[in-house]
Amino acid sequence: MGKKTGFMEYSREKGKEQPPLERIKNWKEYASRLTDEALQIQGARCMDCGTPFCHMGMEIRGSAAGCPIHNVIPEWNDLVYHGKWKEALERLLLTNNFPEFTGRVCPAPCEGSCTLAISDPAVAIKSIERAIIDKGFENGWITPRIPVHRTGKKVAIVGSGPAGLAAADQLNQLGHSVTVYERSDRAGGLLTYGIPNMKLDKDVVERRVQLLSDEGVHFILNTEIGKGVTADELKKEFDAVILCTGATKQRHLRIEGSDSEGVVLAMDYLTSTTKSLLDSNFEDGQYLDMKGKNVIVIGGGDTGADCVATAIRQNCKSVYQFGKHPQLPEHRAVDNPWPTNPQVYKLDYAYAEADAKYGRDPREYCIQTKKIVADSNGHIKELHTIQMEKVISDEGYVYFNELPGTEKVWPADYVFVAIGFEGTDSGVAEQFGVKVTNNRIAAKVTNYATNVEGIFAAGDARRGQSLVVWAINEGRNVAESVNSFLRTQAIAQ
Ligand SMILES: Cc1cc2nc3c(=O)[nH]c(=O)nc-3n(C[C@H](O)[C@H](O)[C@H](O)COP(=O)(O)OP(=O)(O)OC[C@H]3O[C@@H](n4cnc5c(N)ncnc54)[C@H](O)[C@@H]3O)c2cc1C
Ligand code: SF4
Measured from the CB, is residue 166 less than 6 Å from ligand 2? Predict the structure, then answer.
């Protein structure tokens, strides 16, 4: 423990953020880091508790408590406090393949479980994590680690999201020859075409993909397994295959008028915007422009928030985000005690931007869209809604009652549908003969093996739409399991 009284002397300070009205004029990352001195003070706030809940990584009632990859947080907090940045980097890389991603986009369940957070604001763990890795790259401490020995075993990974990349990194370092197949034109999965540039700059993703490539991982882009290359071809050529195909099959809105022009799936909007930005800085016009439009996002989650922030940067006339659930409380509810992930009201980046630009938080709570009405050209004109009341029965069942008299009509030029994901595209799994249950590839968490020998699955494709940090966790774990499988195979030969 660096400074015994640090937690009493210093206040929490998180990373710097460009003011909302400034940052909405561009697509650059809005968050940056504090000075080294300020970060050392933040490190000094860590109490080095006897039982550090921040790195337990347990799932309690469906959400994470503590870091899912068990980052050794108190250790690197102490090293940062003492100015030992390189040593802190070494500790961080023991558990996290890509801190530059989590340090930017992780919702930081570690901070919700920080012991200091019982009485005071949590230690700024995520900011410290990002600073350690960013300094590592800036100082040239991160260089390609090319394996000295190759085992002669070949592994194919389908999908280059964080799960696929983490598995590739681990297996490559163990000496196996890894080929990653990706159907998109760029690697990274949702890190590239999902999370918007202002949250995670795509140069940061490309830098990591380049590093993995320099270390020997072979990337084959623009290739959809199951179409261009078949499952049988992969089975024949490789000793093991890992399916990390994500869970981006979107849930469609099925109400009257939802086939109107201007009703668009959130992922189509986000993906085309990022692609056009990366390809041509929007010169190619291959994106939907919300300039001067009334925009409504249906779906109260993070994907919807990213649509809000994207539409604001395009100068939309108005933007609202409809959610089914009531507004979260300011403080933890009794059934959401520490160290579980705090379910409390926050003004996330997109909402702070809407608030600054339009003078209001764009979220509308407990609202149900009843129908969509189009104009004579078939383009959306308005949305009809009703307010709802959330009721919990004595048996604990949750249901929603419509409140008569609360009907409302909203003018809208575009509606983005962000009501969640159904699961993985089952086509490729079925081609491998792999079982899919409830839209997830069936593979046990104990070994990530599917019902077909030599075929494994990890990430959102296995667990359902989740978080980058869980994808990294699954990528690391499936690699361990594949390595055991390959070693057993080698002994048997
Ligand atoms: C809009 C949005 C914003 C998000 N923001 C955050 C955030 O801020 N923080 C956070 O922690 N999490 C966030 N998430 C969740 C996070 O991005 C995912 O949980 C994570 O990326 C899952 O990783 P994965 O590797 O399992 O799958 P993915 O990242 O989905 O990658 C799967 C890859 O497989 C490829 N693929 C699929 N089928 C084939 C095939 N047959 N052949 C070849 N390639 C194929 C896909 O093209 C894709 O590139 C967000 C998700 C969305 C949708
Ligand atoms: S990966 Fe996420 S949960 Fe883990 S230490 Fe970093 S911010 Fe916290």
Answer: no
